[in-house]
Amino acid sequence: MQQTAQKxxxxxxxxxxxxxxxxxxTTKDKSKVPVITVDDKVKELVTxxxxxxxxxxxxxxxxxxxxxxxxxxxxxxxxxxxxxxGYVSSVKVxxxxxxxxxxxxxxxxxxxxxxxxxxxxGIIKDKFQQFFTTDMTITVKNNSQSALNELIQAIGPAxxxxxxxxxxxxxPSPRYTTEFFTAFNEEERQQLSxxxxxYKPAIxxx
Length: 206
What we know:
The protein is an alpha+beta fold. It has 9 helices and 6 strands; from the N terminus they run H-H-E-E-E-H-H-E-H-H-E-H-H-H-E. It has a domain at about 110-205. It has helices at about 1-30, 40-85, 115-125, 130, 145-155, 160-165, 175-180, 180-185, 185-195; strands spanning about 90-95, 100-105, 110-115, 130-140, 165-170, 200-205. The N and C termini lie far apart (about 80 Å).
């Protein structure tokens, strides 16, 4: 009976300690950043910096909104151009003041998991080997100083899994980018776009 009571008391005390630690940490976080004493000139500068930052954030939000509107209008035109004249990685879009912006697409895509292979093969059948390659990323699971020192010196095959985790992915080949509009029909392109995501194009005003 005495041992049982001690165990219950230990569990109860542990909860109390955890609760206290949580409250204490929150209180400490609030006091981590001290407020320094400055003169009026510095305060005026801080006021200006805050105003400029607010304007910058607002302008960035507006830019992202207008950027999306522009891309939504330009992308179909660029697709028609690729279908009729061949692949183009960049287009210029004129403005009302006789200037322009350049919109560029790169041969880069987000990671495509190996589990999507059957789906993509179902879309493009025997074209898969022509337009996709297998790639992988290797991550060090234990990055402590001692482990890294040991790894640098040398590791045997039997210990490989202790240090690394491997993620296999598939990667579109350069042909996938340059022949996307000619090698696949409209339905295939729509289905592929659901699993193969190209990075957003860059807009340049130079």
